[in-house]
Amino acid sequence: MNELSPTAFLIAAAVKVLAVFTALMVAIMYATWAERRLSAFIQDRLGPNRVGPFGLLQPIADGLKNIIKEETDPATASRFFFVLGPMLSIMPALVTFAVIPFAAPLPTPWGAVDMIVADLPVGVLYILAIGSLGVYGIFLGGWSSNNKYALLGGLRASAQMVSYEVGLGLSLIPVMMLAGNVTLTRMVADQQLGLWYILPLSLGFLLFLISAFAETNRLPFDMPEAESELVTGYHTEYSSMKFSMFFIAEYAHVITASALMATLFLGGWDIPFWSGDNFIPYEGGLISGFTAAGDPIPAQLSIWTTLLTLGAFMLKTAFFVVLYIWVRWTLPRFRYDQVMHLGWKVMLPTALAYVMLVGATILVLDQLGVSGGPGFALALTGVSLVATAMFALYLDRGRIITGAAPAGRAARPAPAAHP
Amino acid sequence: MELILFYVFAVTVVGGGIGVVASRNPVASLMFMVVSLASVAGIYVLLEAHFLAAIQVMVYAGAIMVLFLFVIMLLNLGHDYRDDLVRGLYAVCAFVVSGAICGILATRFGGAETSPLYESFPGAAAMDLELAERGAVSLIARPLFQEYVVPFEITGILLLVAVVGAVALAKKRV
Q: Is the CB of A122 less than 8 angstroms away from the CB of B62?
């Protein structure tokens, strides 16, 4: 496939930006709908089912309601930052999506268009950089409201997000080591040829999952809101569309984090056990793999593969979105000191040790002459599984996996039977 | 296009800097500083130094400024800074010193365009090749972890000592 001309590239980029933004906004709408429906099912209710079939038009009704509602304007708030807060919180969640590849390249008459908004050479680092800006929106919202609950919520949010950023960044280092690159397109290509990273890096995935929950401020980490303690935390004083902006930001964060997990650990848009969707950048062209003799096989692009891979990507992302919702309505909230304890005393040392472990394993395997192929992947999978099992058992300490009640009963001697 | 973007970023860098010193509110100062630091990252991107730009945002705008935020929030919330501002002789001295620094920088870097270091660098072609093959991150990592690994690790130990010292100092007051 020939390269795009500069004009075609610009047009393609503009179209992609618009398409991704629109798709993301629609996805956010239906994430709120899914949240309300699923939470209802979990609590044995029906949820919103009046507006449209299955309540599918409910998000539109919500949006309209939020726009035409009266907006209260706290008199003692610092006006500029009060308006800036929601804007700053929505921006990082949306722009992170720019570096996530969402489908196989699309063949067009003007050349193959990469299905990614911006294939930055610093991929993952861009995500971490933008993610570190996410705290300002929530913090400014909390601070400028001039309300003690909002301020406490903002403070908690910034402390929590700073703490878990460390774990998030460190849990990504094994991924970068394994991929040997920081761009997400290369990571997807690497996972298409070998195993999905969730297997060789299972503990990294677990740490990333926990940190991502904390970064998005979702239950069990929703300290900044904590209705039972802080009214609603940082957005206590917000109403109407500004309040809604914070919610859109939260769901945008959830969807972006889900897409990231799908890309980093579940192979991105890769369809498993099918080599027809392999488009590996190789010597300036795209190939689908190698023949037995080691010759590259040129890849066949088609619009159907693009659509199929887009479907695979959306399915994987939706899986994580549902997981987010499921966890939110299943687990209770942490106490604040527990959040900090988990972040600094459990996640940080584990992530550091895991970086060392993966690095050492790769080095040893390299020295043994195994650098790639099934043996390499299986060895890493084994090592990671042992590490994950140890981590899970340590965190669990006989509470969840073994089950709380039986363990407690087994510890006590059985009461003597009365004759 | 690049020139226009450069001027946009340059104006926000300098404007942010002026905002930091001119605004009365410490949180506003801080946000101006974030704008300034983020715009420096934008200039890095124009220079195609993507890695530096990402690190600039991550470390300065993301981590250090959030810590500033904490310090402002926890120590000095609601404090009026008007009395802290110095006037008179101090202000004159400040103007003279900063003017002198500006003059030195202008005579050193103003005038004829200096040729970029990169073009006269002997290994530039090899570096371009490696950049295309392995990406900027590994290009930066290699000298850091091979040739200069000892100074690099010593810097790490220096930072560790600073952290331990900070904890020790903070503990004493509790």
A: no
Q: Kindly state the tokens that stand for A65.
A: 């309601």
Query: What's this model's pTM, rounded to 2 decimal places?
Result: 0.82
ipTM of the complex: 0.77
Which residues of chain A are within 8 Å of residue B34 when distances are taken between CB atoms? 136
| Structure tokens belonging to residue A19 | 């398409």
Contact residues on chain B for A162, CB-CB shorter than 8 A: 63, 66-67
Contact between B63 and A136 using a beta-carbon 8 Å cutoff: no
Give A154-166 pLDDT, tens digit per residue.
Answer: 888 888 888 888 8
Distance CA B28, CA B91 (A): 22
What are phi and psi for residue A289, nearest 5 degrees? Answer: 150, -165
A371 to A380, A386, B133: CA distances (angstroms) = 11, 21, 18
Residue A318 and residue A314: Cα distance in Å, rounded? 6
| Bond before A220 cis per omega within 30 degrees | yes
Q: What is the dihedral of CA A249, A252, A256, A258, to 10 degrees?
A: 110
Triad B11, B15, B21: Cα angle to 5°: 160
Q: Which amino acid is at A331?
A: L
Interface test with B, best of A91, A99, A125 (most B CBs within 10 A): A125
Instruction: Please tell me which of the candidates B38, B54, B63 has its beta carbon nearest to residue A126.
Output: B54
pLDDT tens digits, B77-104: 555 556 666 667 787 888 899 899 988 8
What size, in residues, is chain A? 419
| Cα–Cα distance for residue pair B28/B34, rounded to 1 Å | 10
What strands, in cross-sheet order, belong to the sheet with A285-290? A280-282, A285-290, A296-298
Q: For chain A, which residues lie within 8 Å of any Cβ of chain B, measuring from their own Cβ?
A: 78, 81, 84, 120-122, 125-126, 128-133, 135-136, 139-140, 143, 155, 158-159, 162, 165, 176, 180-183
> Which amino acid, B83?
D
